[in-house]
Design a protein that fits this description.
The chain is 20% helix and 34% strand. It is α/β, with parallel strands linked by helices. The protein has two domains: 128 residues, 3-Layer(bba) Sandwich (Glucose Oxidase, domain 1), CATH 3.50.30; 196 residues, Class I glutamine amidotransferase (GATase) domain (Rossmann fold), CATH 3.40.50. Strands 12-14-13-15-16-21-20-19-17-18 form a ten-stranded mixed sheet, with helices on both faces. Helix 5 packs across helix 6. The radius of gyration is 20 Å and the shape is globular. The relative contact order is 0.13. Bound molecules: glutamine. The site of glutamine has 11 residues, from strand 18. Glutamine binds next to strand 18. Belongs to the CarA family.
């Protein structure tokens, strides 16, 4: 069926629409692969994703690469959505998967032109629609709090107990700790008051959707947690740590979403490629208790911080990868080493 992608700035694109009308914030993802992880990453809640690579769906959808239990996006924009997939692990096509969950997508639209428009006018409200109406200008996208999926859940038997504060966590973050011999207790951020009761050795603040400032009411509790436990913040978690300690965040014009964002680790003097998915960044006017350790090579934005005296580390990129390069996985090892050192210090204090 023919249909339209309508942007808030008045631009429209005609293509083949599958599914019902939908509305969200339009953003673009530049990785050549990883569509299954992107579609199911909770950080993309309330967004319509333009995939810049022109062939999506070639290797189908499998049982292992989900980042959560369902697609999280409001819609997808492809040039070609391949229905005849080929991969030994593939169970069904992207079309079947999105159809099952009533997530619409449009294909055979000029994705290069759409991306140029977003780069020019910034991420904005968009609609997938059977009709070519204009988007209501007055109604801007309502900011929503992250939706979490599970209640408090304990997994793994390891010797280090990590509390994963869930703002919409990616399964790969959980797995990064389980495979490093950790016990993990997932705690939805709405229940963060319960955290102390579990007596964790460390706390991880997860990734998640939306503007970190929407979570303002949780900041004092987050600061108290980071003051008390070795803490790692990933993406939204990193932004929340900055805000909790008096720093600030701002919105980038069109964000960083892809699998080849170069970052420099100033401590190691090393540049590596990272997987990224964010609109907001910590501004360099962060609180002076923190130092900036990681910097984006393309635009010099802050990619990660460390606390000068406390065991707190935070990264804007995704060390768990999925999709994308795993070159920064050492962040997990370094963090767990930090947790063990803190434990040793407590024993000998
Ligand atoms: N992946 C994330 O955690 C994204 C963080 C935040 N929602 C942003 O867009 O900047």
């Amino acid at each position: 069926m023919s249909g339209y992608l309508l942007l808030e700035d008045g631009t429209s694109y005609k293509g083949n629409l599958n599914g019902e009308d939908s509305e969200g914030e339009i953003v673009f993802y530049t990785g050549m692969t990883g569509y299954q992880e992107v579609l199911t990453d909770p950080s993309y809640q309330n967004q319509i994703i333009v995939f810049t690579y022109p062939l999506i769906g070639n290797y189908g959808i499998n049982a292992v690469d989900f980042e959560s239990e369902r697609p999280q996006v409001k819609g997808a924009v492809f040039y070609e959505c391949c229905e005849h997939f080929s991969h030994y692990e593939a169970a069904y096509s992207v079309k079947e998967y999105l159809g099952k969950w009533n997530i619409p997508y449009i294909s055979h639209v000029d994705t290069r032109s759409i991306v140029k428009q977003i780069r020019k006018n910034g991420t904005m409200k968009a609609q997938l629609s059977a009709d070519c109406n204009e988007i209501e200008q007055s109604k801007s996208i309502t900011k929503k709090l992250p939706e979490t999926q599970k209640g408090i859940t304990a997994l793994g038997e390891g010797s280090i107990h990590v509390a994963l504060l869930d703002f919409g966590f990616k399964k790969s973050i959980l797995q990064s700790f389980l495979k490093r011999n950790c016990k993990v207790t997932i705690i939805p951020y709405t229940e963060l008051g319960q955290l102390a009761h579990f007596q964790p050795d460390a706390v991880v603040l997860s990734n998640g959707p939306g503007d970190p400032k929407e979570l303002e009411t949780y900041l004092p509790a987050i600061k108290k947690i980071a003051d008390s436990y070795p803490t790692l913040g990933i993406c939204l978690g990193h932004q929340l740590i900055a805000l909790a300690y008096g720093g600030d965040t701002m919105k980038l014009p069109f964000g960083h979403r892809g699998a080849n964002h170069p970052v420099v680790d100033q401590k190691k003097g090393k540049v590596f490629m990272t997987s990224q998915n964010h609109s907001y960044v910590v501004t360099s006017a962060h609180h002076k208790e923190f130092g900036v350790r990681f910097i984006n090579v393309n635009d010099q934005s802050v990619e990660g911080m460390f606390h000068q005296t406390l065991p707190i580390l935070s990264v804007q990129f995704h060390p768990e990868a999925h999709p994308g390069p795993a070159e920064s996985e050492y962040i997990f090892d370094e963090f767990l080493e930090m947790v063990l050192n803190t434990r040793r210090e407590m024993v000998y204090a």
